[in-house]
Specification:
Blueprint lengths: L2 H5 L6 H15 L4 H8 L3 H8 L7 H11 L3 H6 L20 H4 L6
């Protein structure tokens, strides 16, 4: 069984898992919903609702968010580590801050 499947809680939908991973990555970058709204041009209320998992993100929205924040789209969608993205946390662990993340640099 893959890490991504193990990371996703059995009762958690994919859209809720995506919102959870995105919230974690935004927190690592000290970026709030209002800042994300400014960067993406999406309404703050829409961002808030989607970050809470009430409404799923579209693929276009996720791509735009990942482009402006430097977050790995593969990590957000699948929970998979990439050579340029974060290593997903194990159950109960927080994702460690990398130098690139703590300096708010995009992960190329």
């Amino acid at each position: 069984m893959s890490t991504a499947i193990n990371e996703q809680h059995s009762s958690e939908s994919l859209s809720v898992a995506v919102a959870r991973r995105l919230r974690g990555q935004l927190a690592e970058r000290n970026l709030k919903g209002s800042g994300l709204a400014r960067l993406t041009g999406l309404p703050q209320q829409t961002i808030s609702r989607k970050l809470l998992g009430g409404t799923p993100f579209t693929l276009d929205e996720l791509q735009a968010i990942c482009e402006v924040t430097g977050i790995s789209l593969e990590y957000i969608l699948l929970g998979l580590p990439t050579s340029t993205g974060p290593v997903p946390p194990r159950d109960g662990e927080r994702t460690p801050k990398s130098e690139a993340v703590s300096n708010n640099k995009p992960l190329d």
